[in-house]
């Protein structure tokens, strides 16, 4: 059976209505989309297509934030290849006061579960005083990118640190209004939404992956940085994608190739304890961010932003000889990859 032309699919229709035809074409040119997701338009949009449309936009947002990642992807496209979007990662925090935003993982659980994602595994990140959770799509686990949602535990840090966290995130706004939350509840119950409601919900979902709090106080940022590079990152980058990940056949060979080209690639490839998942990344983009000084003025500093990651996953053989992709993560790998945002530039 011939695959449906992407331009005639419901996924295209959904993206076209929210970001326009040129941007939609760019996403389809750049990201591999499984034929199973290229279905003809129907009255209600299945949750898996809303999830895929959101993921594709989030991948593009990450590239806009990571120039080295964009250069890599552009070179890949010039060679006639596409990206296989494996997963995106974001950081959250539990604090005494997160403003209008739900605390920690809950801010995204309320989004991901109605879209069809479920927690596949929990990964302790003890060295970072965090916990990671892998959200995998129940309808298309191997073709819809996963989410790695990490949560920083403020109660494991000093009282001064906790006070600084509140000073940063207590001003958080919730990008989802009552109507959006009602649409998510309907999506959870029905596993689909009428087209006009899907059009309304999608931009709000994408907007959740951003900074929701006010410009952070410089003194609070410096207190956070002294104890946790990860929380300092949240202070400037919020709930933006910490990284997006390209699934490649041989990450070790690719890392050697990129290193030889002078690309800012991580020195070491992280290998899972089982050996079946291998990861590396470009070093984080350095970005200029604003801070509030004690006298009320605004000062700017160069800090680590987001980065672009690479992963190779082995195929495993299960009972009855069935083959499946190893979609697991690894606590050691994750903590090694997180170091990409730890380095600070002067200023």
Automatic annotation (TrEMBL):
Cofactor: Fe(2+)
Listed InterPro entries: HGLS
Top-rank taxon, per record: Bacteria
EC class (word): oxidoreductase
GO molecular function: dioxygenase activity
This enzyme's EC code(s): 1.13.11.93
Pfam families per UniProt: HGLS
Gene3D superfamilies (alphabetical): 3.10.180.50
Keywords: Dioxygenase, Iron, Oxidoreductase
Alphabetized CDD domains for the sequence: VOC_like
Keyword Transit peptide: no
Family membership noted in the UniProt record: Belongs to the 2-oxoadipate dioxygenase/decarboxylase family.
Name of this chain's protein: 2-oxoadipate dioxygenase/decarboxylase
Lineage: Bacteria, Pseudomonadati, Pseudomonadota, Betaproteobacteria, Neisseriales
